[in-house]
Write a structure and sequence with these properties.
The chain has four helices and eight strands. A hairpin with a 2-residue loop joins strand 1 and strand 2.
């Protein structure tokens, strides 16, 4: 085994990974480590991971998702049909103005993402996404299905 193994490698700041509006504030407050979440630096470690775990369970924690959480907007004459096809959830039961927790699944039922879905109008939806490239996947599906959505 190589004696020069770095057991605690850092992460190089890179222009293709985005910084949230709170990036520099997290540095001022002592962030020690970042992870990459949805193409953004995500502050993950400030003091002691065990202490932070218990604070998450028994107290209050503040998370910077200011840059990482993204909206995918689906509109157009076929938006309801398309969005209803993306999720196993029955969107006929989702009224305009209502939010639902909705899995986005592939053809085999595997979970691609688990966004909060907001129905803004009959054919207008927002998906508030976690860490995945659902937009690219949805664009490919819509194109190949010949649906009129944006």
């Amino acid at each position: 085994m190589n004696d020069n193994v770095n057991l605690d490698p850092g992460i190089l700041q890179y222009t293709r990974i985005f910084k949230s509006p709170y990036f520099y504030g997290s540095r001022r407050h002592g962030v020690q480590k970042y992870s990459v979440y949805n193409h953004h630096y995500h502050p993950r470690y400030y003091r002691d991971p065990v202490e932070e775990y218990w604070q998450l369970l028994d107290g209050v924690t503040l998370w910077d998702v200011g840059g990482a959480e993204r909206q995918v907007e689906i509109t157009g004459p076929d938006a309801f049909e398309f969005t209803n096809m993306l999720t196993p959830r029955n969107l006929h039961k989702c009224a305009v103005g209502q939010c639902k927790y909705a899995f986005i699944t592939n053809a085999e039922g595997g979970i691609i993402n688990d966004p909060v879905l907001l129905r803004l109008d009959e054919n207008h939806f927002w998906l508030s996404l976690a860490d995945s490239d659902v937009l690219l996947w949805a664009q490919g599906l819509a194109y190949n299905m010949g649906l009129n959505v944006e």
